[in-house]
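About this split. The held-out portion is used to measure sequence recovery: a designer receives only the structure tokens and must propose an amino acid at every position. Recovery is the fraction of positions where the proposal matches the reference. Here is one held-out target exactly as it appears in the evaluation file.
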């Protein structure tokens, strides 16, 4: 997977920098084209000569070469990279990356990089667990950067704990897996529904629900990152996709969502229905605000909305994969399996409102995936971004079976 990939390897000033020589060697052996950038302090731990010899390219450390005045463009490097890896990443560099302190070539290139970024922290255990380091690491994660967790073991201080840079072999493995996944949905067209629907009562009121859209947007982003062409048909939410290639179609009501889904579905290989579609809409929509004292009403007559998933299920062609969600409060598995059959789904993702941290408006979710043969996989409670990865791994497996 690394053959021909352009890797910018950022090395910072920590004792683990000695392992960078092996990392460069392994990357080059795997066929990658490696450009090393060192912070000035990193040169105290390992020489540029070692790294330029192993990578076959002059190491970059300053913004320009002193004797020739040659300018090193961090922008060009940022564009050249298929991935940027910072290993070892010291607490100081992590803090600079998290806060945009661009006072060296490494952080400047990081800020210009369009490619995915992998960060392998290495530091003493107390620095590693300091709230400031933990906050900076979670900031990097929130930017979509991948953290290669440090291992536990004996540290340079001879203390034992978490802080050892992950072994070069495992860093290469993490990159390899990433590139494998990145290509796993290439050529697939994926439809995702997300968010709530709003069913109008009058110009200022609607029937809706608490869905934030986070799960659907995370799936759309993850599918786009894996190379899929994604159309995201979304009810009203306050978030946007992080992947620029996701095409968003905004709708309000279930009927509008159905119309857009029917337009997109025939060309899609996969449809993932995460939207919390309102099951009912008012029979009549008042074109004027309903006034309490004059036009006031005692009740709202409702009519059943179309079932979008079931409609697509009835039109499913050979080779198309249809995935549904079930948000349940009781009798979860049976309800999910009943929906799987009724809507002609290939798998259903179940989340229970009884589990703390799962369901609406949370950043985490705990799911089970159920299949038509009654098999089931249960997953741990995790951030929705990671749940999206699990769901797309399962979808990718279904694609392989087809
Ligand atoms: N769904 C849909 N259109 C609807 C209702 C639901 O496409 N009108 C989809 C959801 O996006 C989800 C799945 O069907 O993927 C199950 O949704 P859920 O609300 O759990 O089920 P319902 O069919 O509405 O059943 P109930 O309200 O009885 O739980």
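Reference sequence for scoring:
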């Amino acid at each position: 997977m690394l053959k021909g990939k352009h890797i910018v390897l950022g090395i910072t000033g920590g004792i683990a920098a000695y392992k960078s020589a092996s990392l460069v060697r392994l990357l080059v052996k795997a066929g990658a084209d490696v450009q090393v950038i060192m912070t000035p302090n990193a040169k105290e731990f390992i020489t540029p000569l070692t790294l330029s010899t192993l990578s076959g390219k002059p190491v970059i450390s300053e913004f320009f070469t002193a004797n020739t005045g040659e300018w090193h463009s961090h922008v060009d490097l940022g564009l050249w990279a298929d991935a940027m890896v910072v290993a070892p990443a010291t607490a100081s560099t992590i803090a600079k990356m998290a806060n945009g302190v661009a006072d060296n070539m490494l952080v400047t290139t990081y800020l210009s990089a369009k490619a995915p970024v992998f960060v392998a922290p290495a530091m003493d255990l107390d620095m590693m667990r300091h709230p400031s380091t933990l906050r900076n690491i979670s900031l990097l994660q929130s930017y979509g950067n991948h953290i290669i967790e440090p291992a536990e073991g004996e540290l340079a201080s001879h203390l034992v704990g978490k802080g050892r840079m992950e072994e070069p072999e495992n860093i290469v493995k993490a990159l390899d897996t990433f590139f494998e996944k990145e290509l796993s949905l290439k050529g697939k067209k994926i439809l995702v529904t997300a968010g709530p629907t709003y069913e109008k009562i009058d110009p200022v009121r609607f029937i809706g629900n608490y869905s934030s859209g986070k799960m659907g947007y995370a799936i759309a982003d993850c599918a786009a990152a894996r190379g899929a062409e994604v159309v995201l048909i979304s009810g009203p939410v306050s978030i946007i996709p992080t992947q620029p290639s996701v095409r968003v179609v905004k709708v309000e009501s279930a009927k509008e969502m159905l119309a857009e889904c029917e337009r997109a579905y025939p060309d899609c290989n996969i449809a993932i229905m995460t939207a919390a579609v309102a099951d009912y809409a008012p029979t009549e929509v008042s074109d004027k605000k309903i006034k309490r004292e004059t036009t006031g009403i005692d009740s709202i007559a409702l009519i059943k909305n179309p079932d979008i998933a079931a409609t697509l299920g009835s039109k499913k062609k050979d080779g198309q994969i249809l995935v549904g969600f079930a948000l349940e409060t009781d009798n979860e598995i049976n309800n999910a399996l009943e929906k799987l059959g009724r809507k002609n789904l290939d798998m259903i993702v179940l989340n229970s409102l009884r589990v703390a941290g799962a369901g609406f408006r949370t950043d985490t979710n705990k799911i089970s995936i159920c299949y038509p043969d009654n098999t089931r996989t249960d997953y741990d409670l995790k951030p929705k971004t990671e749940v999206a990865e699990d769901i797309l791994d399962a979808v990718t497996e279904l694609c392989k079976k087809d």
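Annotator remark: The first strand starts at residue 6 and ends at 11.
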